[in-house]
Amino acid sequence: MDRVGVDYSLNHLAPGLHRRVSKKLGLPASSVPILKTGDTVIQGSSAIIDWAEEHRRVGVPSLTPEDDTTDSATAVERRLDDILGVHVRRYFYSEALLEYPQTVKPIFTNDLVGGQKLFLELAWRYIRKIMIDRMDLGSLQGIRSRQILEQEFDWLDGLLEDGRQFLAGKQFSRVDITAASLLAPLVKPEKHPTYDMIELPPNVTLDCQNWNKRPCLQWASAMYQEYR
Q1: Domain parsing of the chain, residue ranges
Q2: Omega into 33 within 30° of 0, i.e. cis?
Q3: pLDDT below 50 — which residues of the chain?
Q4: Distance (Å, rounded) from C-alpha 131 to C-alpha 89?
Q5: pTM, whole model, 2 decimals?
Q6: Cα–chain center distance at 228
Q7: Can you tell me whether residue 199 is helix, strand or coil?
Q8: Which of 161, 103, 153 is nearest to 128 (CA)?
Q9: How confident is the model at residue 127, as a pLDDT?
Q10: What is the pLDDT of residue 67?
Q11: Confidence at residue 224, expressed as pLDDT on a 0 to 100 scale
Q12: What does the alpha-carbon distance between residue 138 and residue 130 come to, in Å, rounded to a whole number?
């Protein structure tokens, strides 16, 4: 929204309460983010970017690559969402939420209003259990997700090995936003509104110390530094 010049207000939702909001809005799933504008409700990052593209201010560059890389850009964005994002979450939470849940709660309480913060405190043990079940968390799952992440990092490093600045096309695009935001928990960019305060569990910390030498992680950090 900032990039395309659309004014908005941001409302944070506590885990659990987001399901009530989704149901009230008549949405088929409970996932966030959700955009509500007038009578229109849009769910999911990619769909929200589509809407933002259609409503960007005059003169603001498009976030969608406009050259012959568009089809491949769509495929890259889909792979980022369907594989990288899923396994960053499962890898991180399989250690953090199972073994160090006290480090996770601040991520969700950050910027919540009083009533929602109280709800999260009271319902935390139940919310934690539901998250563990629905994200399929566990030690073996975490190991498997780590293996998949290594493969995805190899893929991203391969895209970047020709020296390109952006993942698709010749200008900053939605593909770069997607990749950088999904890698942010591992990079902890200073300009991220939440992940700069995240406390990584020990094994994730050790992995990140090695991973941060990878081109794709260094690229993600540079994207936040230059474009956030």
Answers
A1: 1-63, 70-227
A2: yes
A3: 68
A4: 11
A5: 0.90
A6: 14
A7: coil
A8: 103
A9: 92
A10: 62
A11: 94
A12: 13
- CATH code that applies to domain 70-227: 1.20.1050
Tokens encoding 164: 């390109």
pLDDT for 31: 85
pLDDT at 197: 77
Contact 88, 149 (CB under 8 A): yes
Instruction: Kindly report the number of other CB atoms within 10 A of residue 119's CB atom.
Output: 16
The rounded Cα 166 to chain-centroid distance in angstroms is: 18
Burial of 88 (0-12, 13-18, 19+ CB in 10 A): buried
Q: Is the dihedral of CA 20, 24, 28, 32 positive or negative?
A: negative
Residue 82 vs residues 3, 76, 144: alpha-carbon distances, Å: 24, 10, 15
Specify the pLDDT at position 152: 98
- Both structure tokens of 115: 């009533």
Tokens of 59: 């003169």
Cβ 171 vs Cβ 227: under 8 Å: no
Is residue 92 within 8 Å of residue 204, measured between CB atoms? yes
Q: Which residue has the tokens 């893929």?
A: 155
Phi, psi of 40 (to 5 degrees): -95, 135
Non-local (6+) Cβ contacts of 38 within 8 A are: none
State the sign of the Cα–Cα–Cα–Cα dihedral 23, 25, 26, 31: negative
Residue with tokens 């050790």: 206
Per-residue confidence (pLDDT) for residue 32, from 0 to 100: 87
Give the model's pLDDT for residue 140. Answer: 97
